[in-house]
Design brief:
- The complex is a heterodimer of chains A (about 70) and B (about 500).
- Chain A has about 70 residues and is an all-alpha fold.
- In chain A, about 50% of the residues lie in helices and about 0% in strands.
- Chain A contains three helices and no strands.
- In chain A, helix 1 runs antiparallel to helix 2.
- The radius of gyration of chain A is 11 Å and the shape is globular.
- Among the domains of chain B are: about 160 residues, Rossmann fold (3-Layer(aba) Sandwich), CATH 3.40.50; about 80 residues, Luciferase, Domain 3 (Luciferase, domain 3, Roll); about 90 residues, GMP Synthetase, Chain A, domain 3, CATH 3.30.300.
- Chain B is built from 16 helices and 26 strands.
- In chain B, strands 2-1-10-9-11-12-13-14-15 form a nine-stranded mixed beta sheet.
- Classes of the chains: A mainly alpha (about 70), B alpha/beta (about 500).
């Protein structure tokens, strides 16, 4: 989780990622940020995030993103 | 019929209840769009200004289209300002065109105040409530000519000072005549609009739609991050024609999206704005072999496009797509360094003449004089043509091929090199999703930046197999994601600032 928060703050500095639960819905992460983030996550965790998992619900909070990574890593 | 609003009204009379413009939340019929535009036009005309700038500081929504047409109804011209643009840059644009008024939305008022703009400000929600006054609009119409400006479109320019290209009603009419005929745009066409209204590509789908009774369906930007939703949206709206930047088409190909979801109504895939990598185009073709694919080429200064190529044969990943031949009612020619027409397959600079060519840059006689010049091949009468700064040549099929920007052409180890050629070779490498090349002139080093599977050493050895020794990059940088600018194109300015300095 620590590592993920670090990546998130690099993609979009100045956001309290531990608290936010509407990262996508409220527009904090725009499409370019999501695309960047997905590329970073695929790289760092060596996972393949397919279009099936590219849905707003999986990116609305750090927790949701963390669970997505865990699921894909298994 | 002389103005774009005349052509629009013809489409309204033939398709009054059809949807003209829609997005996720709203949808405007042709009749409704005309009513709103006439309201905006009436309010703006009350200022008593003619051929002045009206700035549209608005999100990309159907109401923004009403404001664009409304500005035309008022006898003025619009500039569209990116709603995400910082106040400092807006200030630069405003100091160039001195807008008579700004139409904006409440959320953007703060940024607008920061620009120090002191003229008339309208909120879009209010101005569309104006009662249309036919006598006012008729009086304006009587004075408009086809040579009046319709919009002024700012391009960033590598120097950082934005230039505003002035485009007339006549330019857009001549240009869309070609677009509509060549791509058979009718009231059955549904465009899935990707490009922002402050980018010249949007002129093509927007105005060819508004002239024919077609529908322009604005795609929410966020769907490019959530591609299954993108496909759902395209299917829900029954989108059959798209005109996107290659980076947007590549998002689809790179995520292998069609394995999971497919657009059901697609007939035409058009692209422009940057080089379309063949590998990703072939992905689209493999799933949709019967769709028409066309590579369009041109600058804002020729309204949008001057040459095009409809894909009619197979290409392999290391080849590049031609930019084809001139559009109908547009002429292009290739000129060497001495201002003489090039020999058959010789490289030279592309010039454009004809009714697509814009007037020049607003309040910028120096830059205008550099690019809008007397036709070097015509010594007999005044004829301004546009010097594109693009280096091209004819291939064996008598099609034009893009070689690169004149200012991207570098001299390295005594050779003249097109960075675009190295990019092409790099994107063709297995597992590479995107690549861009820079040149640091003070250190004389070519820098290759790419996103994809291969590690840097592997990448370098793959590129070495594909380009001559003198074109091999001196530095290779793997990045996890290629940055894109607000138009959706690769952000070369950012790359240069980040990786161009050694």
């Amino acid at each position: 989780m620590e590592e993920l928060l670090e990546i998130l703050s690099q993609v979009k500095p100045g956001v309290d990622f531990e608290k936010e639960t509407e990262l996508v819905d409220s527009g904090i992460l725009d499409s370019m940020a999501i695309i960047q983030l997905v590329a970073r996550l695929s790289d760092e965790y060596d996972i393949e995030i397919t279009p099936i998992d590219l849905v707003p619900e999986n990116f609305n909070s750090a927790q949701a993103i963390y669970e997505l990574i865990k699921r894909l890593d298994d | 019929m002389k103005t774009i609003t005349d052509y629009f009204e013809k489409a309204v009379s033939e398709n009054p209840d059809k949807t003209a413009v829609s997005d996720e939340n709203t949808s405007l019929s042709y009749n409704k769009l005309m009513d709103l535009a006439r309201s905006v036009g009436t309010a703006l005309a009350s200022m008593g200004r003619k051929r002045s700038a009206v700035a549209l500081f608005l999100d990309k929504t159907p109401l923004c289209v009403a404001a664009m047409l409304g500005t035309a109804y008022s006898g003025n011209f619009y500039i569209v300002v990116d709603s995400k643009m910082p106040a400092e840059r807006i200030k630069m644009m405003f100091s160039t065109v001195s807008p008579a008024a700004v139409i904006t939305q409440p959320e953007l008022e703060g940024t607008l105040n920061e620009t120090g703009f002191s003229g008339k400000v309208y909120f879009i929600g209010d101005i569309i409530e104006t009662k249309p006054d036919n006598s006012v609009l008729e009086a304006v119409r009587a004075q408009i000519t086809q040579t009046d400006p319709l919009y002024c479109l700012f391009t960033s320019g590598s120097t950082g000072v934005p230039k505003g290209t002035v485009v007339s009603h006549g330019n857009v009419i001549a240009y869309t005549d070609w677009f509509i005929n060549r791509f058979e745009i009718t009231n059955k066409t549904v465009f899935g609009s990707q490009t922002p209204f402050y980018f010249s590509m949007s002129v093509s789908d927007l105005f060819s739609a508004l002239r024919t009774g077609a529908e322009l369906s604005i795609i929410p930007k966020k769907y490019f991050a959530f591609p299954i939703k993108l496909i759902q949206y395209l299917n829900e709206k029954r989108v059959n024609t798209i005109y996107w930047v290659p980076s947007a088409l590549c998002i689809v190909a790179n995520s292998d999206l069609f394995k999971y979801a497919k657009p059901q109504y697609l007939e035409k895939v058009l692209f422009a704005g940057e080089v379309m990598p063949v590998k990703q185009l072939n992905y689209w073709i493999s799933y949709f072999p019967d769709v028409m694919y066309a590579n369009l080429f041109g600058p804002t200064e020729t309204t949008d496009i001057c040459t095009y190529y409809v894909v009619n044969r197979e290409f392999d990943a290391a080849e590049s797509l031609p930019i084809g031949n001139a559009c109908e009612n547009c002429d292009v020619f290739v000129v060497d360094e001495n201002g003489k027409e090039c020999e058959k397959h010789q490289e030279g600079e592309l010039y454009v003449r004809g009714p697509f060519v814009a007037y020049g840059y607003y309040n910028n006689p120096e830059k205008t004089a550099e690019a809008f010049v007397q036709n070097p091949l015509n010594k007999s009468y005044p004829e301004l043509v546009y010097k594109t700064g693009d280096i091209v040549k004819y291939n064996e099929y008598n099609e034009l091929v893009y070689c690169g920007r004149k200012d991207h052409q570098i001299k390295h180890m005594g050779y003249r090199i097109e960075l675009g050629e190295i990019e092409n070779a790099s994107t063709a490498v297995e597992g590479v999703l995107s690549a861009a090349c820079l040149y640091n002139s003070s250190a004389d080093v070519i820098i290759l930046i790419y996103q994809g599977k291969p590690e840097e050493n592997e990448m370098l050895s793959q590129v070495k197999k594909r380009v001559p020794e003198y074109m091999v990059p001196g530095k290779v940088v793997k990045i996890s994601s290629m940055p894109h600018n607000s138009n959706g194109k690769i952000d070369r300015v950012l790359l240069k600032n980040t990786y161009g300095v050694l």
